[in-house]
Every structure is written in C-alpha cells, then in structure tokens.
Amino acid sequence: MPPRRLHAAAAAGDDGGLTMRSLLFVPGDDERKLAKSLDAGADALIVDLEDSVVEARKAAARRLAAAFVAEAKRRASRPRLYVRVNPFASGLTDADLDAVVSAAPEGIVQPKCLGGADVQRLGAKLGVREAEHGLADRAIRIIAIATESARALFGFPSYVGASSRLEGLAWGGEDLSVDLGAESNRLPEGAYAGPYALARTLTLVGAVAAEARPIDAVYTNFRDLEGMRAEALAARRDGFEAKMAIHPAQVAVINEVFSPSPETLAHARAVVAAFAAAPDAGVVALDGEMLDLPHLKRAKRLLEQAEV
In the chain, what are the domains? Predict the structure, then answer.
C-alpha cells in the first residue's frame, strides 16, 4: 500500500505517479504561469480559482483552468493536476465544478473546509458531475484544507471514515490568523505561534487517523529557501509526506527534503531483511540497536513511499 491510502480512483490509472512531495499553487487566470508550471518539477499542480483570482477574473479563470487541465493530460509525462475551487460560502463552488470536472483533474482542493460533512457534500457534487461526463465513480479525489478558521479546528475527528475520496489534509495559517484577529502567525524568530503550531499538529494527527496524506503548509517567503528547507525538514521529521509551494523556486528544495536519502533507504531495507531472517521474532538486533515491530512498520512505509 502506497503512502497512507490508495483509493479506487487511483487504482483506475491516469494517476500521474503515486509520489507526491511537492504541490505547487498556480493562479488559474494566468496563462503564462500555467504553461511554465508544467516544467517546474512539482509532483502536483494546484490550479487556483480561489485566493489568487480576483472576482472579476473568476469566469475567465474557470475557462483557462479547464482548458489547461485537459491539454496537460495529453502529455506523456506530467504532474498530477488538482484544482482549488472557491469555498461553499462564496456561492461559486458549483460554477467552478461545472467548468473543471469535464477535464477530469486528479482531484479538487477544498478550501475553508470545516470537517467530514463538507467533504461528503463536495463528494456528492463531484459524483453527479462524474456521471454527467462519463467519468468513473470517485475518479476525482479531494484534498481538504482543514485549518482556515477557528471552527475548523474542532472538525478533525469527523474526517475519519467521511469519504473514500479524501486523499489528503492540508493546513495553512494565513486565513486562520485573520479569523483569530492575530497580528502575526509567527514568532519573531520565525517559528509558528501557539495557535498555528496547534493547527499544524491537528492536521498531522487528523490526516493519519483518517488514512489520508498529511500535507504541510506553504512557506510564504519564497525568497528564503533556507528557512523553507528548515521548515520542510521539521515537517518530514514529524510525519508530513508533502509540502505545498507558492513559487517554482521552492519545488526543488521540497522534493529534495521529502525524498529519502540512499543511506536512509539502505537502512530501511536492512531492517526489513533483519525481520525477514527472523520471522518469529518480535525484536531483532541491527548495528547495535534493538528494533521491534514499529521499526519494521516505519521501514516498510518508507520503502513504499519511495516506491522501491
């Protein structure tokens, strides 16, 4: 089983590869940026119809996004393609879905999500449109951004079992800081302040509980690649599988951080081999260290994530 979950939709093919370390946001109304994004090296693109598109450009962005996804899917090699729609409260979600589902993106990124009921509601809307366009049932998956309001932080338990479409949970601190009325979401030294560190942790444990991918937030200072690297390393250490990006320059760093080193993979193979050599043992010794079954599970998951 690949990282966390492989839905029936992914098993049907046209998945663009299972590895997903970097997810790059691209404004849906900018033809130049959309065209350049295909060669940015990101594992996934998130074509944005929400925050990066002003109201007057929403209709044009829908048309451009649908055409871009349809054309990009013809490429022999491409990133996975997602579309971030506008939230339910905007009244624009249905128009967004009407425009882009026919192009069959791999998934929809759902902003301002409050919990499992919102995912189910979006899933029902997708199901109707999949049928209308002759797509397989549940072909389109959902990544929910789950921390954009104070209310959303109480919704994490509801994601468990909510929908087989749920592929990932992501988080972000910008909208949350606005909702909380905060002056900043970071401390002077750059670390997240308490409420946002809590949101990050809830996203990680909530995603794992729901068998979805935990996806780390964007690093908004796109010129500070070393700061972003440090944040990505901390995210990988804690269990996040991927990180979102807002600029192509961030992609290579994210991919590097979330790709296991040859030494790490070699150690994981050695752990698996040690347990295979002692199939009845609950504990084995390797390089002077005593390892038990959680070490074996971690090693197997690492190898699965690396697709080796």
Answer: 8-259 (3.20.20.60), 263-306 (no CATH)
H or E segment at 253? helix 251-257
Task: Using the structure block, give the residue that is written with the tokens 């606005």.
Answer: 178
Nearest residue to 47 (alpha-carbon basis) of 59, 56, 274, 62: 62
Spatial neighbors of 120 by CB under 8 A, at least 6 apart, are 162, 163
**pLDDT tens by residue, 94-115:** 999 999 999 999 999 999 999 9
CB 81 within 8 A of CB 105: yes
- Per-residue confidence (pLDDT) for residue 250, from 0 to 100: 98
Low-confidence residues in the chain, pLDDT < 70: 1-18, 305, 307-308
Specify the amino acid at residue 17: G
Backbone angles phi, psi at 219, to 5 degrees: -105, 110
How many CB atoms neighbour CB 11 within 10 A?
Answer: 8
C-alpha to C-alpha distance for 6 and 166, rounded to whole angstroms: 10
Q: Give the DSSP per-residue string, 220-231.
A: S-TT-HHHHHHH
